[in-house]
Design brief:
Elements lengths: L2 H5 L2 H9 L7 H10 L5 H4 L2 H10 L28 H9 L3 E7 L5 E15 L4 E8 L4 E6 L3 E7 L6 H15 L1 E7 L7 H7 L4 E7 L4 E8 L4 H11 L3 E5 L1 H17 L4 H9 L1
Antiparallel strand pairs: 1-2, 1-5, 2-3, 3-4, 6-8, 6-9, 7-8
Length: 276
């Protein structure tokens, strides 16, 4: 393992995080300083935060990409940032109520719906933001696309027990969650940072078996994230294998069987080849 692999070793990074230390390279500072000059930065940050970041990076240069990057024609992509994010995040932090109007199927609008916002969620599969909230009139847990919200305002909830509603929402979310355990093949331990980067959009926990020198990554997945996780596992190839999660095991077996069949190889032929 060379010097740079040691710098990005997971164990070192995790210890730095525990101590509240965050490593930032000069390239990252230059990139951030460049992005702060984009018009979208004014909407993404509060004025105080934006001024503070610009003051911290005042002595840093900006990234000159004119001679290195060429933007080619591409399909239209959805922006990760949404104008409602900052406003909704503040209401969630303050445990404030909301009164919102949103579009449903058929183009009809549900106006002035009273609820309690709980969490903002980003789907890596659909590349869309969702608001998780509790409908106070119907006593239902709701999941609404931010793009479908036509209007939202803060609403005082003086007679509502918000803490009990938060507990109810958490139970509903926990019921949607599943877990899978990926084991890093020992020959690829030094690529752990790359593997974790591929799984960066998932809630996860890493454990290290010192006796067998094996890393195991426990990944938390929601119902609609399973196929996205499968795509990441396929991308990582032989670096990882699924050791817990029967559904993922079956889907990976199906994918491998279909891939072999496409080239006229059966599982029996593969076993014979491996035995030679």
């Amino acid at each position: 393992m060379n010097l740079f692999e040691k710098i990005f070793n997971y164990q070192i990074i995790s210890r730095l995080e525990d101590s509240g230390t965050f490593m930032v390279t000069s390239h990252e500072r230059a990139w951030l300083n460049t992005m702060l000059g984009h018009p979208a930065a004014d909407a993404a940050f509060t004025p105080d935060t934006l001024n503070k970041l610009r003051a911290i990076l005042a002595q840093d240069g900006v990234m000159d990409a004119s001679d290195h990057l060429i933007e080619k024609a591409r399909s239209r992509e959805k922006q990760v940032y949404h104008p409602l994010l900052r406003f909704l995040r503040r209401l969630i932090t303050e445990k404030s109520g909301i009164r919102l109007s949103y579009v449903i199927k058929g183009g009809r609008i549900h106006p002035d719906q009273l609820g309690l916002p709980y969490k903002l969620e980003y789907s890596m599969v659909k590349r869309e933001w969702y608001l998780l909230w509790f409908h106070l009139r119907h006593h239902m847990f709701m999941r609404t696309k931010l793009d479908k919200i036509t209007g939202v305002t803060a609403e005082a909830l003086q007679t509502v027990d918000t803490d009990s509603i938060h507990i109810e929402i958490k139970k509903a979310l926990d019921a949607r969650k599943g877990e899978a355990v990926l084991e890093v093949v020992r020959d690829y331990n030094r690529e752990l940072s790359r593997i974790l980067y591929a799984l960066s959009s998932f809630e996860k926990d890493v454990a290290y078996d010192t006796e067998n020198e094996i890393y195991r990554v426990r990944v938390v997945i929601l119902g609609d994230e399973t196929e996205y996780l499968l795509s990441k596992i396929r991308f990582l190839g032989k670096r990882v294998r699924v050791v817990e999660g029967n559904f993922l095991k079956r889907r990976m077996l199906e994918s491998a069987t279909k891939a072999l069949a496409r080239y006229g190889v059966s599982s029996v032929d593969e076993e014979k080849e491996g035995a030679i």
